[in-house]
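Notebook entry, cofactor series.
This is the third protein in the set we're modelling with a bound small molecule. For this one the ligand is zinc ion. I'm keeping the input format identical across the series so the outputs can be compared line by line later. Sequence and SMILES below, as received.
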Amino acid sequence: MHELSMADAMVKTVLDVAEKNNATEVIEVTIEIGKLTMLNPEQLKFLLDVIVENTLLEGAKINIEEIPVELNCNICEYKGLADMDDSDHYLAIVKCPKCGERNVEITTGRECNVKNIKIEKEEEV
Ligand SMILES: [Zn+2]
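Returned structure with ligand:
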């Protein structure tokens, strides 16, 4: 499952950062998901909640931000939001909303990052 491997990788990234910073607890995590990744945010959130059990991330607030698809059209030079037919979730066709061409350069929408991590640190004595 696509979501599961992504969720797993994200939790590893966050835990890695938390450990390097001597975190005692992770309070909040913000994740960016581009629409083109075809990840289902609800499913991802659900999986994350399961994976984080018994880790530093348990109880952390997990925010998922969806990044819309934007493009630069190579035909009419339109720049902006894509016209996406997402009726079929697994086969996204990105087209220029102005001229309808598929000869476009996608500028955003492929993100899959851990954007922000808030941690609690051990008090220095
Ligand atoms: Zn165009």
